[in-house]
Amino acid sequence: MGAGGDGRVLAQKRNFSFDKLKLSSVKDDLTVLRHMWFGSKKGDDHAARLESFYGPQAAAYDAFRSRFLWGRKPMLAACAARLCDRSNMVWVDLGGGTGENVDLMSQYIDLSKFKAIYVVDLCHSLCEVAKRKAKAKGWKNVHVVEADACQFAPPSGSATLITFSYSLTMIPPFHSVIDQAVSYLAQDGLMGVADFYVSGKYDLPMRQLSWSRRFFWRSVFDIDNIDVGPERRAYLEQKLERVWEQNSQGSIPYVPFFRAPYYVWLGRHPSVGHALHEEKVERPPLFPPTFLYTQSWEDPEPDMEVMEINPNDTVLTLTSGGCNALNLLVHGAGEVVTVDCNPAQSALIELKKVAIQNLEFEDVWQMFGEGVHPRIEELYEKKLAPFLSQTSHNFWSKRLWYFQHGLYYQGGMGKLCWVLQTLAVVCGLGKTVKRIANAPTLEEQRRLWDSNVVIHFVKHGPKLLVWLFVKFISMFLFNRAVLWFGGGVPGKQYALIKADGIPIENYIARTMDGVAESSHVRKQNYFYYNCLTGKFLRDNCPTYLREDAFAKLKGGLVEKLTVSTNFFMDELRARTYTKVILMDHVDWLDTHVAQELADTLAKQVSPGGIVIWRSASRCPPYAEQIRKAGFDVRCIRRADEGYMDRVNMYSSFYIARRKGKKD
Q1: Alpha-carbon distance 376 to 385, whole Å?
Q2: Phi, psi of 537 (to 5 degrees)
Q3: How far apart are CA 608 and CA 659, in angstroms?
Q4: Which of 136, 129, 135, 91 has its CA nearest to residue 110?
Q5: Burial classification of residue 213, based on how many CB atoms lie within 10 Å of its CB (0-12 exposed, 13-18 middle, 19 or more buried)
Q6: Under DSSP, is residue 337 helix (H, G, I), strand (E, B) or coil?
Q7: How far is it, in rounded angstroms, from Cα 628 to Cα 624?
Q8: Which of 47, 79, 139, 359 is within CB 3.0–4.6 Å of 134 for a Cys-Cys bond?
Q9: What DSSP element (H or E) covers 206?
Q10: How many CA atoms lie less than 13 Å away from 593 in the CB half-sphere?
Q11: Whether residue 24 has pLDDT greater than 90
């Protein structure tokens, strides 16, 4: 037989083996399902009932549960992320079954960091599987204990980590097992819980389920003697302080359409002044299901020239892309509160904050400098997701592909940049755009800009043809829908531009021409370099992406950042501020709301405090409202006086100082 014949035989054998494996897997699954749905749960005590239920399915237990118990890995990853710098630890896994949690934990932390791991379970068959697994894996520090979790305590008398992985709902005297576990949890220890749940009728917003889901899932699980009611988590939070949680839902093998609710919860001994509460945040109407801005779209350099930032400052700013909020911390602000009513913008800056806290500079650079990271899924699972709020996790868990396709081509403005770049290529201007973006000098940039065929035609072509061309481009690219969803320019701001007597195409042309003639994109204007290329450069990027600034933020400054998903006025009323950055927010408001804002600023900004804003109007009408509210108001720059700043997109820049003496 020739080589080809040998290859066919080998292929047939492989296919036969694969088919056998698939049949074996299905057979195992059917065994598990049969005992889950129709199996006996009889016995004189809890141990006997567990054995009657799990004994016949013990050998197939792990493979089936890996497609069902979705909270295990996030719980273990979250625990490992908080304990990764420690060693000589003791871990007690209560209701640990087959020891699969130990195997999964090895993906997140070196098991040698634990001097002892106790897998505790009352089911004999599951413990036997765990013992065989520990022997096969060579786990010398793993001890399988067949015992009642309500009575077990580690020989050392304390544990660094205690976990309940889908076991707490199956322990009838849950008060006893929680009390016992808390009694030997070390003062600096951590407890992790993953399990199915239903909420109470009135529960925290992030947990709340409808009455139909509460009734359905509690009834379904009750058939298997699993109590998924809210009482267990409520008792946990009476004994321990909640550190972090996520609430989600996961699919069930062979059960289409239905998704079972589960939670992951981490707790520790209470500390003074701790409070963790996250409201359910809804996206406002008319907002796209993602962020508008991937970077802050205001030049921070003029801000720093006038704001007198110091360690005594509490600064309130709109979130936007979050770059400028981080810049304030680097420049010495004592506390920065950043607020946006779009939860997607909060998710973006929260991811930046968590990345700075938990990743090395090169990983942060790839994520937010290059906008692409080849290992984003691994980093997210192990180092980012364990620290994100539930709202942000819900957002990013579905959008990690942003960092595969390019972060800066996502969101409203990102999509607009992608469309413009694509149009440039289609029109044969792709190479010209790259040359302008990478021009070595400002003089060369000006030359390339002025000699560009489109710009040359607009400036020097026949007036009628130029007029028709400009009107066509304006209708296609500068209509209200594109301006709102791509550039974040709402109708009220558009009206302010028109009130100044400036056609929108002239407004955009003034912006672009001013940047091209006055700001060297390659060396000093990271805003437009990013728009033209979809990335930043190490010497041309927002402050937080510079290595020295990153080190300061990671060293503790980023802890002074508070991210809030809220309406601006509500956050303004929440505390007193020394500095407030309105960006162009007031352009969006009706006159009576602008008056309310001016009055609130007068109450919430300390005497001597500073408020700054930009406007698409040369003389925004609300400037007078703020002046009458008790501020000295001054226009610093206006577009009709020339080039504004590196963004150059606004018509005026204002500063207002609160009258009265400082404390």
Answers
A1: 11
A2: -115, 155
A3: 6
A4: 91
A5: middle
A6: strand
A7: 6
A8: 139
A9: none
A10: 11
A11: no
d(CA 54, CA 369): 51
d(CA 484, CA 509): 18
Q: In residues, how long is the chain?
A: 663
Q: What is the DSSP letter of 544?
A: G
Contact call for residues 560 and 331 (beta carbons, < 8 A): no
What are the structure tokens assigned to 485, written together?
Answer: 């969803």
Among all chains, which residue has been given the structure tokens 């295990």? 72
CA dihedral (479, 483, 485, 491) positive or negative: negative
pLDDT higher for 476 or 462? 462
Phi/psi at 194 (5° precision): -130, 135
**Measured in whole angstroms, how far is the alpha carbon of residue 363 from the centre of its chain?**
16
Q: Find the mean pLDDT for residues 411-421.
A: 87
Q: pLDDT at position 646, please?
A: 96
pLDDT(395) > 90: yes
Nearest to 347 by CA among 297, 398, 286, 303: 398
- Exposure string over 52-81, b if 16+ CB within 10 A, otherwise e: bbbbbbbebbbebbeebbbbbbbbbbbbbb
CA distance linking residue 390 with residue 71, whole number of Å: 13
Distance CA 133, CA 495 (A): 70
Q: Which long-range contacts (CB under 8 A, 24 or more apart) does 143-147 make?
A: 143/116, 143/117, 143/118, 143/119, 144/96, 144/99, 144/119, 145/118, 145/119, 145/120, 145/121, 146/121, 146/122, 147/120, 147/121, 147/122
* Cβ atoms of 318 and 340 closer than 8 Å: yes
Q: How far apart are CA 65 and CA 589, in angstroms?
A: 53
Helix (H, G, I), strand (E, B) or coil at 261: strand
CATH 3.40.50.150 at 59-268, yes or no: yes
Distance (Å) of CA 471 to CA 467, 503, 505, 506:
6, 10, 8, 11
pLDDT digit string (tens) for 25-71? 656 555 655 555 555 556 556 666 666 555 555 555 666 677 789 99
* Helix residue ranges, H only, 519-645: 521-524, 526-533, 547-554, 568-573, 591-604, 622-628
pLDDT at 419: 83
**Residue limits of CATH 3.40.50.150 in the chain:** 59-268
Count, in order, helices (H) and strands (E) of the chain. 30, 14
> CA-CA distance, 430 to 253, in Å (whole number)?
49
Cα–Cα distance measured from residue 21 to residue 11, given in angstroms and rounded to the nearest whole number: 15
Torsion angle in degrees (nearest 10) through CA of 422, 523, 357, 411: -20
Residue 249, pLDDT above cutoff 60: yes
Separation CA 229–CA 242 (nearest Å): 18
Amino acid 459 reads K
Q: Distance (Å, rounded) from C-alpha 124 to C-alpha 144?
A: 11
What's the token pair of residue 587?
A: 């352009």
Quote the CA–CA distance of 248 and 394 in Å, as a whole number: 8
In this structure, the strands spanning 114-121 and 89-94 are parallel
* Cβ atoms 540, 525 nearer than 8 A: yes
Phi, psi dihedrals of residue 231, rounded to the nearest 5°: -65, -35
